[in-house]
Amino acid sequence: MANDSPDDRQHILLVTGLSGAGKTTALRVLEDLGWEAIDNFPIRLLGRLIGGPQHDGPRPPLAIGFDSRTRGFVPNEIMAKVKELAARRDLVVTTLFLDCNSSELERRYNETRRRHPMADGRPVRIGIQAERELLEPLRRWADAVVDTSDFSSNDLQQAIRAHFAGSAPREMAVIVSSFGFARGTPPLADLVFDMRFLDNPHWVPGLREQTGLDAAVGEHIERDESYGPVLEQIRELVLKLLPRYAAQGKSYVNIAFGCTGGRHRSVYTAERFAQALRDAGFSPTIIHRNLGSRAADEIEGPQ
Questions:
Q1: Which residues contact 291 (CB under 8 A, 6 or more apart)?
Q2: Are 262 and 291 in contact (CB under 8 A)?
């Protein structure tokens, strides 16, 4: 009899979705996380790849990518095969579907000048619609659906890490990030704090070309009488929330600070806040999304 202890079950993740929605990126991230990743594997050989129940201890998690281009791609047959595998006590089988709206997919294909696999010489939008209809049963049936319409490649990478980095017990990762509202709100932020109430160093002579990493900018921000009390209130709130997130099993928590351009107030606050978390015993990672963006009056505006 196979060992059905949760620690000994092999995790199988089937990654599918619309062409251009990010399957290759997802599989690359999973491979970085320690999964064995295989793309475009023939569905009819799925049982042979996984093999029968084994008794030699835990096996590494396996991610298998497939889509409409994969040989033997018939949604109903795939679902029947997966149900058969999911009934085994030595496996944990999950299906991830990557979705994306049609206009964004069309933009991606036109931008890269790639041919859609189901267009067959017709306009890209026709191929997208045909593939969407083919895959709809899989989309409805999948365990997890991630819509990548508004995601950059980096956003998708973070989403995959947040969903699947926790296949083995590990410490919750805390990310502290800065960004500019003028360049879009980060879609994967769990907590967003708007620092635009602070006086903007962009309009101070000598500070515009500097950033929140420079001492003079930090001194200017610290002189705002609201800065210290607000930062302390945010610190108290987050320190209460982080243990609750961990108790819910979250793998990643992204705490984002925004200002108009993402170069001054948000950067300095993120750095200060990350240090406050270190003082509290956490080990945050810092990401400054727009630090390298140029200073521009049309972006900054009056705020």
A1: 178, 211, 212, 213, 262, 263, 267
A2: yes
Q: What is the model's pTM? A: 0.54
* Cα 193–Cα 199–Cα 200 angle in degrees, nearest 5: 85
- Distance from C-alpha of 271 to C-alpha of 254, rounded to nearest angstrom: 14
Q: How many Å is the maximal CA-CA distance in the chain?
A: 75
C-beta separation of 245 from 286 below 8 A:
no
User: DSSP string covering 155-216, please?
Assistant: HHHHHHHHHHGGGS--PPEEEEEEEEGGG---TT-SEEEE-TTS--GGGSTTTTTS-TTSHH
Q: Which residue has the tokens 């240090």?
A: 275
pLDDT at 56 over 60: no
Helix axis angle, 23-32 to 153-164, nearest 10°:
50
pLDDT for residue 297 is more than 70? no
Cβ count near 113 (within 10 Å): 6
Task: Name the β-bridge partners of 173.
Answer: 252
SS3 125: helix
Cβ(178)–Cβ(290) below 8 Å: yes
* 1 has pLDDT over 50: no
How confident is the model at residue 197, as a pLDDT? 96
CB-CB contact of 22 with 98 (8 Å) = yes
Residue 229 has pLDDT above 80, yes or no: yes
- Quote the tokens at residue 188: 């994967």
Tokens coding 273: 């806040």
SS3 (DSSP) at 127: helix
Q: Are 24 and 99 in contact (CB under 8 A)?
A: no
pLDDT of residue 293: 62
Per the model's pLDDT, the better-predicted residue between 141 and 220 turns out to be 220
